[in-house]
Model the fold of this input.
Amino acid sequence: MILDELEKRLRPPERPMPPYPPKYIVVASGQPLVIRQARHDDFPALLEAVEPLARVRKDFYDIVASRMYAELLGQYIHRVVDPYCLVGTIDGVIASIVNGRMIDEKRGMSYHTLTIHRGLRCGAHMFAAKMEYHMEYLGQDEVFIVAESFIGFKRWMIEYQLESRPELQHELGGAPSYVLTRALYDMYKPRLVAGTRPVPPEILATADELILPDEYPQIPGYKR
Amino acid sequence: MRQVGIVGIGHTKFGRMDFDLVDIMSWAALEAMKDAGITDGIDQVFVANMGGSAINHQTGIASSLVSRIFLEPAMAELIENGPASGSSAVKCGYMAIASGMADVVLVVGGERMREVTGWKATDFVATLSHPDAEYAYGLTLPAFAGIFARAYVERYGLTEKHLATLAVKAHRNASLNPFAHIEESATLSGIWDGPHRDVVNPIMADPLRLYDFCPVSDGAAAVVLCGLDVASRFTKHVPVRIAGIGQATDTHCVHNRADMLDLKAVRMAAERAYAMAGIGPKEISLAELHDAFLILEVAESEEVGFFERGQAKAAIERGETEVTGRIPINTSGGLKAKGHPVGATGVSQIHELVKQLRGQAEAGRQVAEPKFGLAVNFGGFGNNVVATILAKE
Amino acid sequence: MVSTRDLYAEDRNVYAYRCPKCGVLYHPAPMVCKGCRNRRDPSEAVFPDFEKVPMGGPCRLLSWTRIYALPEGIDRPSIAFGIVEFDNGLRAAGQLMVADPQSGARLIAKSGLVRELVGRDFYGLQLFEA
Done:
């Protein structure tokens, strides 16, 4: 590949990151939620899926969607170092997105969890998948986490009993960092992390081409 | 005594509503008045609400509602009786008409709980428990449900599959009810025997799981009552008669009941309602039972006499409480899936029974030729219960 | 004048209340005896208060739960609760401090700090393995 010299200088160095092997979770409706790593060619669809929620001024959707949009764009045009994004789909439709990045071999940085399809605990499953990626595939010992919503705080900080590390600056801003340690992950994994691998080909195929949601429960009357 | 009937019903969708509490209630009230074919002529308004002051920082809600929809100078009061507020308000409406103090009464129940986080809402509902002997420990209504469920399971052998079957029923009925909070279906393969059951449907109050609980909802429901002697003023619908109302209380602290599985207030409220209506449980065509926790649907269905103690599970296995079963229960989706805005719930149950008795329920959840409907509205953890029987006239 | 020691002293007991007229025990305290209708006056201005009897000791677990969604103000992933019956027939709810509880098990109830409220620690019954 030929890379422009200036573009080369603007891009952060890339380190190889172990892939997140896809899995699926049978949610309450009986449908499989397929969770896989987002590919480079997924990002235009992901950005389009996130954008409408940036204007939802409740439950902190606006700030989470705005920031995730910028983070995904940053990953897409190579302006973030060692990022990743996982996408969850139901019948191929984007249900939830999570992202973060690798600080170094032993430490990870969790960014955001954004759930479009509500009512099936997709957000909880996706956050757990993100922690699974850091701990089991990137082989890290700690993940830095910060919450921007009440539900995020209660769910992650309380459910996982994260360690408070107010002295650590999280990349998302001034809020104090919390840390998921390997010991905590191992303790809460049976209750919070699920999934089956490998994903049968016919189920995985449904998630190959991302489908944009036609409706957003967060935006009454929205039609794509 | 003067006979009382229901001539108008109104309902908002349950779920998340970003409107003022009184606006939500007003919507349901105006829908009920429209259904009754009136724009005025209300003598008395009873408003059922539990959390207006604690959650929404609003008091004097009944006066506010009357003014918001221009019903002055109607008499108006707020009825707060915990989660049984709705049925208590209907009872008050009945008494006002039966006594001759009013001819036409509007009853509105509503709640706006999602203005606060779910944890704050849980805390707010828990304030109905004993402040020192229960609440201060961190005991909540879901905790009492867990304690009750364990005792029930150990005594009668109810299984997780029975409860999951009820959850599937509730979600299916709710999916057919345009007013229901929950629109997602639930399947046994997802919540009971699926490969990821323990994470998808985790234990929340051991032995109860997530799908055994109702959601936290906003919403309102309303009914217009009138004396049957003046029912000729209302020509849109044949009135549905209030055939019986019974109410009973029990100990505030759950631990002070000789047998914690004995929901005495449910049984006595139902017996009083049956006695007033002059019928028994066999005559009931369908029931709305207060299932904030599915274990309550099981226990209440026995206390009101549909099944012998410990036999509800066999009825679940036979599908007897499905819409097409012998005694359909919670055709609306129940609190479990329709939602549970606490002050609205009792009125919403009456709304559902009227809809069913009129034959107006949506396809797939209309009970065939119903004659009598029973509603059980369960306050506290069973310490104040109202049972209401409606009759198709 | 109240001494500083008295001012900050905490009563860490959990009490049952005995009717001074007929001897029946209650938990929590009622305002009148159910049996003999003898009235209780917490201020002791008009009637004597009921006799306070510290609760605790051997008991039997009637039923229990562990909850994983706690209300506002309790930032813990789970708490277990039980309802127990003491040998004198008195019943109470308490926080269950047993890893693998079984209904019917013999336990020991002790008073302990169950919740820290603003400006006040709340002592309640905690239930331990016998």
